[in-house]
Amino acid sequence: MKCRRCRAPAVIDVRRHNAGFCRDCFLHHCREQVRRTIDDFDMVHPGDRVLVAVSGGKDSLALWDILRDLGYDVDGLYLGLGIGEYSDESGTYARAYADERGAKLVEVDLPTGSRVAHRAPCSACGLSKRHLFNQAAVDGGYDVVATGHNLDDEAAVLFGNVLRWSTEYLGRQLPVLPAGNGFVRKVKPLVRLGEREAAGYCVLAGIDYQVEECPMAAGNRHLGYKEALNAIEEQSPGSKHAFYFGFLEKASPLFTPEAASGQEQLQQCAQCGTPTPGEVCAFCRLVERARR
Amino acid sequence: MDGPIRVHALLERLEINRESVLVIRGDTLVTGDVQLHDDDEVEIRPVVSGGAA
To answer: Would B37 be classed as within a structural domain?
Structure first.
């Protein structure tokens, strides 16, 4: 197989694009996909300071690297989740990337450490991450939090939301969530790249990342959705892209009013000040439960 | 497994979805049409991660 751009021997094929790429052209392809996503969705404005949520895995390290290559003012944020050896190792990859490239990595530990992470399922881990990422961004004076959610992640979440017709979640499933109500802008610049491309980017860019999967995620529903979507994708390349971007274009606006009305009813959490529909936010309730 | 065998055929034989892995021979990635030989060192690296956050 030849590279689509320069006709040199290809090292990776991307069936969704019906194309193969050599190393340099593939790295260019990934950067262009991210640049286009940022432009199309107006994710980062001139002068913005960006904080990338870095886990030590392929997606977040690829995102950090690409944003740096594209010239953004971007630092990394590593959140220690306290999941034993898995977290120790993930932190090592995040620090190594920062050290080797002279990048700035902010580190925050999950309050009460492993007790939250071990007791909580993936949804509670996600809740904690969203809360602490925002807090770190506010504290550090950042304008934007960028996460490494890729096309596979977003298509799988969409699949789950559609299966259960979770209309409020569908209304909020956007690649960019504007700032407001105490939250900084949240963006997902990798949504045009599949996770195979993110992994390929790291291998070809010489970025060491944690290949091992989080032990808490094994067998979760999200992985099942990904497997189902990959079975479809194998038969019909481009299905995940069509599913997700078709949703954004044709269906998402139908659900945003419901999600927006939920946002209007927020008040400040009595304990941490984060906007919440109740008296105490979900994160503070989670930490309280873990302390018992 | 004996070679020569193409990457796609190898994955098919192992019942691995090609969307869910990268194939690395030595220290570089290889495309699905590449022929693998008996003495090649091949890593089939999963790329699917599970966090829904």
So the answer is: yes
In a domain, B30, yes or no: yes
Residue A148 DSSP symbol: -
The predicted model scores a pTM of 0.91
Looking up tokens 């690296």 gives: B45
Domain annotation covers residue B52: no
Chain A residue closest in CA terms to B47: A196
- Distance, CA of A239 to CA of A236 (rounded, Å): 6
Domain ranges in chain A? 41-251
A57 contacts in B (CB within 8 Å)? Answer: 49
CB-CB contact of B8 with B15 (8 Å): no
**Closest residue of chain B to A131, computed from CA coordinates:** B53
ipTM of the complex: 0.94
* pLDDT for A128: 80
Of B19, B24, B52, the CB nearest to A222: B52
More confident residue, A89 or A111: A89
Record: contact A200-B22, CB cut-off 8 A: yes
Residue B20 domain-assigned (yes or no):
yes
Cβ contact A217–B50 (<8 Å): yes
- Identify all chain A residues contacting B11, using CB atoms and an 8 Å cutoff: none
The CATH number given to A41-251 is: 3.40.50.620
Instruction: Reply yes or no on whether the pLDDT at B52 is more than 60.
Output: no
The mean predicted confidence, pLDDT, of chain A is 90
Maximum pairwise Cα distance, chain B: 42
